[in-house]
Write a structure and sequence with these properties.
globular, 9 strands, 276 residues, two-stranded antiparallel sheet, seven-stranded mixed β-sheet, alpha/beta, Rossmann fold
């Protein structure tokens, strides 16, 4: 099925050579999600790993056999989830370039059997109803125009009682979108959801909100670390990424840092359970 315009925009944000160089070199290589930092100068990869560990510690089920990861990037989370839970993982991701790298990394680690990477949208997950014990997503839904759709798909593929853990960079509740123009421009976004939006949408599609853990303080810290690493590694990045791309990226990252420090943005972990 052809991708929607918002999906093509998201695909373009990650599929270019510039983006490949930036995300693979600066964000740690395995993961491209936000980190929880023990110190302001901690390596991004270590902080990103801490986020996953913190999320997985919230699981209450005794065993998890099948996981669906929505917006799986380089499959860093998929590999982590397989190792921690001994579960098979369906990794759903729009970016063909990311998926090529993800499959290579899975093969490197001997995990190409338990992890299946599919070129697909989280708006139309290629999975049957009620097959997953756990649905997982990190910092991916900001690209959705209709954010109810990926939540509805998560509810559809989960077994009754199954859990959904996700993070997403958000607008703080009550913030005027006009205040976020620089933030939105970085990834060609039209809006950001708020924590209140997601709580309402979750209830509408049949989830119980077990918890939303507010981790706002890490958002400006993370984007600040990414900006620092980009500046420090600019010479190396310019071997594969353009000056125009890096200039735009650094300007965009500064908008995220500033908005985060002003309290205009939100980030945290949603823990939802499918009712029934």
């Amino acid at each position: 099925m052809p991708y929607k315009e918002s999906e093509r925009v998201a695909q373009a944000a990650y599929d270019s050579q510039d983006a490949g160089a930036f995300y693979s070199q600066i964000w740690g290589g395995d993961d491209i999600h936000l980190g929880m930092y023990a110190s302001p100068d901690e390596p991004i990869a270590e902080a990103s790993h801490r986020t996953m560990q913190h999320m997985i510690d919230k699981i209450t089920q005794g065993s998890v056999d099948y996981v669906v990861d929505l917006g799986s990037g380089y499959c860093g989370a998929a590999r982590f989830l397989h190792r921690e839970l001994d579960a098979d993982v369906l990794a759903v991701n729009l970016s063909g370039e990311q998926n090529v790298r993800a499959r290579q990394l899975n093969q490197r680690d001997g995990l190409d059997e338990p992890i299946t990477v599919v070129d697909a949208s989280y708006n139309e997950v290629p999975a049957e109803d009620a097959v997953a014990d756990l649905v997982w997503s990190q910092d991916a839904f900001l690209h959705a125009i209709d954010r109810k759709q990926p939540l509805a798909e998560a509810a559809r593929v989960l077994k009754p009682g199954g859990e959904f853990l996700f993070t997403d960079p958000m607008a703080a509740d009550g913030v005027n979108p006009a205040e976020l123009s620089g933030v939105l421009a970085r990834l060609n976004l039209s809006s950001l959801a708020s924590p209140g939006d997601y709580k309402q949408l979750a209830a509408e599609v049949g989830f119980e909100v077990v918890e939303f853990e507010d981790l706002n303080e890490y958002l400006p810290l993370h984007y600040g670390r990414v900006l620092e690493e980009t500046q420090a590694n600019a010479e190396e990045l310019l071997k594969t990424a353009s000056q125009q791309y890096l200039d735009g990226m650094m300007k965009g990252l500064q908008h995220w840092v500033d908005a985060g420090n002003r309290g205009l943005l939100s980030w945290g972990i949603f823990h939802l359970r499918k009712q029934g």
